[in-house]
Design a protein that fits this description.
Blueprint (H helix, E strand, L loop, with lengths): L2 E6 L2 E6 L4 E3 L4 E5 L5 H7 L9 H16 L3 E5 L8 H4 L2 H11 L3 E5 L13 E3 L1 E4 L2 E4 L9 E3 L5 E6 L2 E10 L3 E3 L12 H4 L10 E4 L6 E3 L3
Parallel strand pairs: 4-5, 5-6, 6-7, 9-10, 10-13
Antiparallel strand pairs: 1-2, 2-3, 3-4, 8-9, 11-12, 12-13, 12-14, 14-15
Protein name: Phosphoesterase
Organism: Sulfitobacter undariae
Length: 220
């Protein structure tokens, strides 16, 4: 699998091009902010229309990551569903697809402040998961180390061969990783605006999703 290899609190991790985080020693895949059903919710609430295939695209990328990794455990960090009633907003085909991905795996939903509680999809439902030397929660907490979180939907900008690329990005320092949003229609403004400076140490870098996985210094 293509990505950026690094160490956090002694755990060897890989930030994948797709936006997922891979912990090979634990056979563990982590994704954040799936926002499944987002385009359907926006259309139903008479907002700006979005292309209707975001959930299918998100699930397709997740299925590809799981097929390549053979992950035994999946952790979904917060806001996995865009609606409080995911059973009503997801088409049957997509619900069945998600069920199939869960078969034979430990599946953990980490709750966020606005996360729909997807009880019908099974798995464990936790506010955080300590798995030493790492801890998984939705929103980062200052003064912690070995922390994996999401929430901020970070993006970063890099100039390559005269082109300026802005993409979802991992934020990494010696204490934590903040994951990009995995959902197709979920993004955010520049990282220097969205993420409080006190959460990240001076050596923090951003790793853009996609190729190549080159660390760039965080802008302050």
């Amino acid at each position: 699998m293509n990505g950026y290899d690094f160490s956090l609190s002694g755990a060897q991790l890989k930030a994948l091009w797709s936006g997922a985080l891979w912990w090979p020693e634990q056979s563990l895949m982590i994704v954040s902010d799936l926002h499944l059903g987002k385009s359907e919710r926006v259309a139903r609430q008479n907002g700006d229309p979005l292309p209707p295939y975001d959930t299918r695209d998100t699930l397709n990328r997740l299925a590809a990551d799981l097929a390549l990794s053979h992950a035994r455990t999946v952790i979904c960090l917060g806001n996995s569903f865009a609606d409080i009633t995911p059973q009503d907003s997801l088409p049957e085909e997509e619900r069945q697809w998600l069920y199939r991905m869960q078969e034979g795996r430990r599946w953990v939903w980490i709750d966020g402040p606005q996360t729909a509680d997807p009880i019908e999809f099974g798995g464990a439902h936790l506010t955080e998961l300590p798995l030493p030397p790492l801890t998984f929660r939705y929103i980062a907490q200052s003064g912690t180390s070995g922390e994996i979180s999401g929430y901020y939907h970070p993006t970063a900008t890099r100039e390559t061969d005269g082109r300026v690329l802005t993409r979802p990005a991992f934020l990494i320092d010696s204490n934590r990783v903040i994951l990009p949003a995995y959902g197709t229609h979920t993004g955010g403004p520049e990282v220097r605006i969205t993420v409080p400076d006190q959460l990240l140490r001076p050596e923090a870098v951003a790793i853009l999703t996609g190729s190549p996985s080159t660390p760039i210094p965080m802008l302050r």
